[in-house]
Amino acid sequence: MNTPLDTDADNFDVLIVGGGMVGASMACALGKQNLSVGVIEAFPLRSHSQPSYDARSIALAYGSRRILEGLAIWDLFKSDISAIKKIHISDQGHFGVTRLDSQQVGVNALGYVVENRVIGSALNEKLRQFENIQLICPAKLIDLFINENFASITIEQDQQKRTLKSKLIIAADGANSAVRKQLAIDCHHWEYGQTAIISTVSPRKPHHNIAYERFTSSGPVALLPLSENRCSLVLTVRDENKEEILALNDAQFLSHLEQRFGYRLGGFHKTAKRSAYPLTMMRAKEHIRKRVVFIGNAAHTVHPIAGQGFNLGIRDVSQLAETLILNHRAHKDLGCLGVLKQYEKRRKPDQIKVAAITDTLARIFSNEFAPLAHARSSGLFLADIIPPLKHQIARQAMGVTGRLPRLSRGLSI
Prior knowledge:
Blueprint: E1 11-17, H1 21-29, E2 37-40, E3 57-61, H2 62-70, H3 74-77, E4 82-84, E5 86-91, E6 97-101, E7 111-115, H4 116-127, E8 133-136, E9 140-146, E10 151-157, E11 160-171, H5 178-182, E12 187-203, E13 210-215, E14 221-225, E15 231-238, H6 242-247, H7 250-261, E16 268-271, E17 275-284, E18 288-289, E19 292-294, E20 300-301, H8 309-329, H9 337-364, H10 370-385, H11 387-398
Parallel strand pairs: 1-2, 1-11, 2-8, 5-13, 11-19
Antiparallel strand pairs: 3-7, 4-7, 5-6, 9-10, 10-11, 12-15, 12-16, 12-17, 13-14, 14-15, 17-20, 18-19
């Protein structure tokens, strides 16, 4: 029976470790349910030091919008988003181009761009509305113990140790997951030898809500439309060139960007502060154990080449929420392997497919072997002129392929 452990404030039905965008979304998905939920977060609420809520922007797929609508979060920040009406994919030095258009697939936008701090603020506002959710922050995970009937977590909060018990632990604590380390779960890990330099730039021509992905020998360049004719920039560079690029002054940096991207937007005249993030691929060898499930970057990280990171994580949220809520209504033990295997079976195909697509693209489009370069250029060209293929690529980018849970259809559970 899935009944509360007891009425003690330190006992929960579900404990979520990690209050970033994926963890907070997971908590919101369990709001208003007959479940006691705790969210353990290392940073203070609304803290800009929370890694999920930094100055970066993220591309939300159309399918992620549906999930956020199902969670009643979308309306809290929709006035601050920029729509992606079209996507333009090209390969520097080669003729192939693929163009995706929202009108051709019958939607208002293929995706949306929003600053992390904006969606973070909306999630924090939503969390405060739920009486069944307790925010435990700032707090640091010290120890984790699992037995047949419950999981026990020891945290340090206000320089005091506190022990919490739960039927289920949801690990949403990022790529360096403390929960994963406590359980000694190994990972498949790959370093691309690349660094993403993140910034905001202003082009000289209007961006017309077009997102650009340009492949170059040094890695992809992505430009996502923002308000006030700004673009969120993800410039991939080889690790050995990172310090040199970061040391450039603004004029030199914009000149370098123009050499990589070209002048389709008329060049660039302004840039903001730059940040650098190493690029890796990681997949935990176990996504579930009895009383523990990993979601978001705690379970998998992918190359940002197709902007799938958060979108993949929030699809984890959508499926896990549906699995847990339906099993709770059926009076099942939410931490048992039978329930968690239902989630794993539903999510594994999408997770593997996205990891394979992003990894393949990163490798193929960074390889200048001439026959391969001609083949990929031809592939982009064919994808542009064959409607069924283009439609499938658009649906994959939008995150609306396969069997969709209720939240992924914009419906509440």
